[in-house]
């Protein structure tokens, strides 16, 4: 099948654009594709562990963990964007990588499709 | 090129969309973009609906906002996330989010 | 050996959000992407400013002085220093009544040789057509 690279810069909880990207990833993987998921800017919040789930707030940590178990999903956060926001390596969700921005470009290099979702 | 444009906003998208040129231009209404398919203002429908014959609206985002498929303009096809994946991989070579 | 062309299309205004800054820093990251690729493989970026995005290219931005952050002006100069191709939409420059003097067209003051180009939107559209992937900011 094919690879979809999604770059998301939108805030966790503050915008449903991240939720859209996660749901799209789920749908793509169900169809046999693989997904590279790049978090930059405010979206790096999603890389932080310890997110609590409340009914009034969108909660994506469990969805991300489930996607990781498929083996077809990679999630990487921009290290600089995360550190600028006080998210350090030890705060990172298990399975989520951290790299510099060139990782996203490399992912785009080998992707059949790229969807870049700007910040909200 | 075959370009799929995911329209995520109700405001401030017309300028960008109007300038894009493609052999096949798909307008895929998601997030707040779904209002283009369902809302009217002063009795008028959104001008976005004139931009392309290939119009789609994400049903989950439509329903989240209180609209049903019966209320959308009949030029617009309601799709699921699964359908969107198919559009991305088989109908359009490049996709953008505005 | 393969080359993937990525078009970074900037339509956002600077500073209120970081969208345009991230466009520039990501485009500049093409300089180091080779560490992830096979020998000879390349990512070729194009930066194009359209719509309100042309206002990222104004000279005399004092963001460092007032907010302690690198200005979009400086990021753009860095991009030119690294020989990235930069296009600024002619119709939007005219719409805002701007002359070339008001815009960052080069990075000569920091040793850069590459100049930005003011280009009609049709030309930018052709570049999008020939790119492998489009990233709108």
Annotation keywords:
heterotrimer, A: 120 residues, alpha/beta, Hypothetical Protein Ychn, Chain: A, 5-stranded parallel beta sheet, 4 helices, 5 strands, 31% helix, globular, C: 137 residues, 5 helices, 20% strand
Structure in words:
Chain A has 120 residues and is of the alpha/beta class. Chain A is 31% helix and 22% strand. Chain A has a single domain, classed as Hypothetical Protein Ychn, Chain: A. Chain B contains four helices and five strands. Chain B has one domain: DsrEFH-like (Hypothetical Protein Ychn, Chain: A), CATH 3.40.1260.10. In chain B, strands 4-3-2-1-5 form a five-stranded parallel sheet. Chain C contains five helices and five strands. In chain C, strands 4-3-2-1-5 form a five-stranded parallel sheet. In chain C, strand 1, helix 1 and strand 2 form a beta-alpha-beta unit. Chains in contact: A-B, A-C, B-C. Chains B and C meet through helix 1 and strand 5 of B and helix 5 and strand 5 of C.
Structure at a glance:
By secondary structure, chain A is an alpha/beta fold. Chain A contains four helices and five strands, in the order βαβαβαβαβ. Chain A has one domain: Hypothetical Protein Ychn, Chain: A, CATH 3.40.1260.10.
């Amino acid at each position: 099948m094919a690879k979809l690279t999604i770059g998301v810069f939108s805030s966790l909880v503050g915008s449903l654009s991240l939720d859209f990207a996660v749901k799209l990833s789920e749908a793509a993987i169900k169809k046999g594709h693989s997904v590279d998921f790049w978090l930059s800017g405010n979206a790096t919040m999603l890389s932080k562990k310890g997110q609590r789930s409340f009914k009034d707030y969108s909660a994506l940590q469990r969805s991300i963990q489930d996607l990781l178990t498929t083996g077809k999903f990679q999630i990487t956060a921009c290290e600089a964007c995360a550190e600028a926001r006080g998210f350090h390596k030890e705060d990172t969700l298990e399975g989520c990588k951290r790299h510099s921005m060139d990782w996203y470009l490399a992912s785009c290099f080998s992707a059949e499709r790229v969807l870049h979702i700007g910040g909200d | 090129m075959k370009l799929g444009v995911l329209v995520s906003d109700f405001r401030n998208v017309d300028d960008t969309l109007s300038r894009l040129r493609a052999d096949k231009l798909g307008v895929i209404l998601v997030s707040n973009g779904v209002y283009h398919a369902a809302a009217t203002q002063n009795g008028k429908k959104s001008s976005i609906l004139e931009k392309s014959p290939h119009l789609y609206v994400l049903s989950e985002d439509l329903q989240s906002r209180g609209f049903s498929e019966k209320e959308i303009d009949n030029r617009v096809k309601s799709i699921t996330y699964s359908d969107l994946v198919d559009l991305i991989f088989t109908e359009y070579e490049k996709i953008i989010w505005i | 050996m393969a080359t993937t062309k990525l078009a970074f299309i900037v339509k956002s205004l600077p500073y209120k959000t970081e969208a345009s800054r991230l466009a520039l820093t990501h485009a500049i990251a093409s300089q180091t992407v080779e560490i992830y690729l096979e020998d000879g493989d390349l990512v070729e970026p194009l930066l194009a400013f359209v719509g309100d995005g042309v206002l990222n290219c104004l000279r005399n931005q004092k963001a460092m002085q007032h907010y302690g952050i690198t200005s979009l002006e400086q990021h753009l100069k860095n991009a030119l220093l690294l020989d990235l191709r930069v296009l600024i939409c002619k119709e939007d420059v005219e719409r805002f009544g701007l002359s070339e003097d008001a815009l960052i067209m080069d990075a000569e003051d920091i040793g850069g040789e590459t100049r930005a180009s003011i280009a009609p939107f049709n030309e930018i559209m052709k570049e999008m057509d020939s790119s492998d992937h489009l990233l709108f900011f």
